[in-house]
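Methods: example folding runs. The two proteins below were folded one after another, and each record is reproduced exactly as written to the output file, sequence line first and structure-token line second.
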Amino acid sequence: MENDQQQKLISELVFLIEKGNAHVSMEDAVAGLPANMRTVIPENLPYSIWQLIEHIRIAQKDILDFCVSEDHEKLAWPDDYWTEPVEHIDDQTWENALNEIKQERQRFFDLLQDEKTDLFSPIEWGDGQTILCEAMLIADHNAYHTAEIVVIRRMLGCWR
């Protein structure tokens, strides 16, 4: 693949992960969320917005750690990917989680943009995954759960 084509692909991946094409960004999905709604679990749903944010954070970090190190800590599905419900999340904990998502996302973008990164070859310690595949996994996974955040906000009556 020519360098300008690869750069175009990387730009599209970054945009898809960060902003999305057909959906709101994660930042937009949580903007203006009242603090008292972070941990509410709507009837007939298994998790709160807080649990979704933590799940996005944990899964995204796990994907990145897998991409960069054979020695990454393997997490057990589903227990290590989901937090237990809590009654309250303070502003500092909330902001720390959102900031970590942004920082890990930027680390992944740095990996994508590193000229030594091969987007198409299988990751040596994986079982066929490529960096391109993992980028699409992050985009798909985060978009899915971002949509759930919007739906929960609608159910709680705190969406636009």
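Second run, written to the same file directly after the first:
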Amino acid sequence: MNNRRERKKILIKKSISDVALKFFLAKGFTDTTVAEIMEAADLGTGTFYNYFQSKEDVLHSYLTEKINEARHILEAIQQSHGEPSQKLSEILLAAGKSYEENRQLFNMYMQFHRQNPDAGRQPPHGPLFKEILVDIVSEGQEKGEFRKDIPTAIIIEMFMGLLQSTMTSYLPTPFMDNLRHKLSLFLEGLAVKHQP
């Protein structure tokens, strides 16, 4: 009996979330109301608050789910047997792909926070990827693949900056091409130069 009730709750929450996301994409986050979400979901308006605190909570919940999916991919990359530079490449491209597939919703979320600085929510990813990146950079330094004269924190900040600068780029270059070019420049500067 409890399993059926839990499944029903999960389905209702997913239904509300799916309808809300369609409205956010079609009308915009601000112009979407809880009442119209719930009418389209064929549920009472009060039911919304049994599952979510606000419209922003719907968006945050969805993005957190997407980031958790990406985290599993990144952890698998981290544990793979590839070289550290290959792992960094795969991680950046996987994160870039996740962003590109959900770009409009990520941008809505960030715009909401720029307009509502008192909302008190952290970005859904938080410090999620830092530990994975530190491990890979340290591995690359230990194996002599990456330079040791640059502090790990600087390398991580620059690496994360590749994605951030691509996310805010106004160049006509397609997103993933832009990211690949920046990654290539980054890895060339990070590589240990072997003397002939």
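Comment on the second run: The chain has two domains: 1-52, 55-190.
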